[in-house]
Design a protein that fits this description.
The longest helix has about 45 residues, at about 155-195. It contains 18 helices and 17 strands. About 45% of the residues lie in helices and about 15% in strands. It is α/β, with parallel strands linked by helices. It is elongated and about 110 Å long. The protein has three domains: about 1-180, 2-Layer Sandwich (Beta-Lactamase), CATH 3.30.450.40; about 220-370, P-loop containing nucleotide triphosphate hydrolases (Rossmann fold), CATH 3.40.50.300; about 375-510, Helicase, Ruva Protein, domain 3 (Orthogonal Bundle). The strands form five sheets. Strands 5-4-3-8-7-6 form a six-stranded antiparallel β-sheet, with helices on both faces. A five-stranded parallel β-sheet has the order 10-11-14-9-15. The protein has a two-stranded antiparallel sheet with strand order 1-2. It has helices at about 15-25, 30-45, 75-80, 85-95, 155-195, 205-220, 235-245, 265-270, 290, 305-320, 345-350, 355-360, 380-395, 405-410, 415-430, 460-480, 485-490, 495-505; strands at about 1-5, 10, 50-60, 65-70, 80-85, 100, 125-135, 135-145, 225-230, 255, 295-300, 320-325, 330, 335-340, 365-370, 400, 435.
Length: about 525
């Protein structure tokens, strides 16, 4: 049919037939994106367009990418990546409204990332339509059409709107299937992480998963390990986990707290002594290294070891031999050494309080254990663990912790780390009268902004950002990391939620597998 009013084809006679065709093509496709390539080719021929493309919105990475196109090379498609609000495509996603550019050569908003704009060509129009399903912006459908002074593209807009609905509905179905597969992949990854997770350590956060991977890699070796982290983070548990996963697991695991031993006794404790070697040495004594022969020795607080002992330990590391105090016999030993410290060894080296050569011998494979405030997502599961533990130890029957009390735990800075958290939970369990831990059962130090290091200081923007980040974290905790539900709870759009998650560097995956009851 020819439209006299618009002086061009109106497609009225053929559009229904074409829509039925593409509907059947999409609905019966197994590979939606492969079929889209065919559809876009047919669309260009039908509308007499030169190029066409479908973009997909990635809310997590805040970008828009070309998923299917006709007339564009692979290189051109790879360049077609837009931020929200960037270029015409980005503006369509941001405004959720169609945009028509009559002549892309005269429009400064057209970025020409795909290189479709050529010199000395007739005017090229760009028509971009949002693909929206159930209020969710999924992407865009667009065409480039060369023309001679066409003033009105309303026919194309109406037609593309219908096509975008057909595409969007089917992409939504395929995306749901993809999300189910992605969820299955994450579940498989979780099962893999559970295999990595040592039995004696609690935590599912991403930082802990990375730690488990390091433990898995270093455990089968004989390499010397240095575990670093603040006091109370569980460095001894990490050392024990390495030993239990090593070929030495059936042998002894000997623990030595170097800071607890007086300087005049530490050599005897580590290497042993012969009878009569010093006053009070009434019998020969086997040192910790001999006890650990064939197994592992864990030297905690290695930063407190005197320089004189560092020299002797260096010999052990280099020659695998020791001598008892007062003895002349050299004893061969086969011991793996794991050290730990919360001190700044590099600063101790600078002030000549720690030997540099010894430092490099024990720092073969360093492992950093994050502080509790760096892995707040693990607080609920740690809380559950401590409730169960002290129920058994103290014959209690505490069932749960309230959401308000858990919020206080999440806000606190935890200078004493996991050790402090366990003490807080044990105290609260003693104080509760109804087998539920309430906020008023927690110590006063958790209930003030100053003591918890959460007092609102600084410019208003900074304070608001801290509050907003905490509200988003709380929503993700209560929805087990479900971004959509968390956005609904906060009454914001999923897009805004995605932007804030990226801004505050929050990982929703940390909250997906919490087992805590928040009711």
């Amino acid at each position: 049919m020819y439209c006299d009013k618009m002086n061009r084809n109106c497609y009225v006679d053929t559009d229904l037939e074409f829509l039925v065709k593409i509907s059947n093509t999409i609905s019966h496709s197994r590979d939606i994106y492969k079929e889209l390539e065919i559809l876009l080719e047919d669309l260009c021929k039908f509308l007499n367009a030169k190029y066409s493309m479908v973009t997909i919105v990635d809310h997590n990475q805040e970008k828009i990418m070309i998923s299917a196109a006709y007339g564009l090379t692979k290189e051109a498609r790879s360049k077609g990546v837009y931020k929200f609000g960037e270029g015409i495509v980005g503006k369509v996603v941001e405004t959720r409204a169609p945009i028509v550019i009559r002549d892309i050569a005269k429009d400064v908003g057209f970025l020409n990332k795909t290189g479709v704009l050529k010199k000395n060509e007739q005017p090229m129009a760009f028509i971009c339509i949002p693909i929206i399903i159930k209020g969710d912006i999924m992407g865009t459908l667009s065409i480039h059409k060369a023309h001679d002074n066409v003033a009105n593209f309303s026919v194309e807009i109406k037609f593309l709107n219908i096509v975008s609905m057909l595409i969007g509905r089917n992409i939504s179905i395929h995306r749901k299937h993809f999300e189910e597969l992605e969820a299955l992949r994450r579940e498989n990854q979780l099962l893999s992480n559970k295999h990595l997770k040592p039995d004696n350590i609690i935590g599912n956060s991403s930082m802990m998963v990375e730690l488990y991977q390091l433990i898995e890699r270093v455990s089968p070796t004989n390499s010397t390990v240095m575990i670093r982290g603040e006091s109370g983070v569980g460095k001894e548990l990490i050392a024990e986990a390495i030993h239990q996963r090593s070929p030495r697991a059936s042998k002894a695991f000997i623990k030595v707290n170097c800071s607890a031993l007086p300087e005049h006794l530490i050599e005897s404790e580590l290497f042993g002594h012969e009878k009569g070697s010093f006053t009070g040495a009434n019998a020969s004594h086997t040192g910790r290294f001999e006890m650990a022969n064939g197994g592992t020795i864990f030297l905690d607080e290695i930063g407190d070891v005197p320089l004189s002992i560092q020299v002797k330990l260096l010999r052990v590391l280099q020659q695998k031999q020791i001598e008892r105090v007062g003895g002349t016999k050299t004893i061969d030993i086969d011991v793996r050494i794991i050290t730990a410290t919360n001190r700044d060894l590099e600063e101790l080296i600078r002030i000549n309080s720690f030997r540099e050569d010894f430092y490099y011998r024990i720092n073969v494979f360093p492992i950093y254990v994050p502080a509790l405030r760096e892995r707040r997502a693990d607080i609920p599961i740690l809380t559950d663990h401590f409730i169960q533990k002290h129920n058994q130890l103290n014959n209690m029957s505490v069932k749960r912790i309230t959401g308000g009390a858990l919020d206080m735990l999440m806000l606190y800075s935890w200078p004493g780390n996991i050790r402090e958290l366990e003490n807080v939970i044990e105290r609260a369990m003693i104080l509760t009268s109804d087998d539920v831990i309430h906020s008023y059962n927690l110590p006063p130090t958790l209930q003030t902004g100053v003591s918890s290091n959460t007092i609102d200081k600084g410019p208003l923007d900074a304070v608001l950002e801290r509050v907003e980040k905490q509200m988003i974290t709380d929503a993700l905790i209560s929805t087990r990391g479900n971004i959509t539900k968390a956005a609904e709870q906060l009454k914001i759009t999923e897009r805004i939620m995605g932007l804030r998650i990226k801004q505050y560097q929050i990982n929703p995956q940390d909250y997906k597998h919490l087992t805590h009851d928040f009711n």
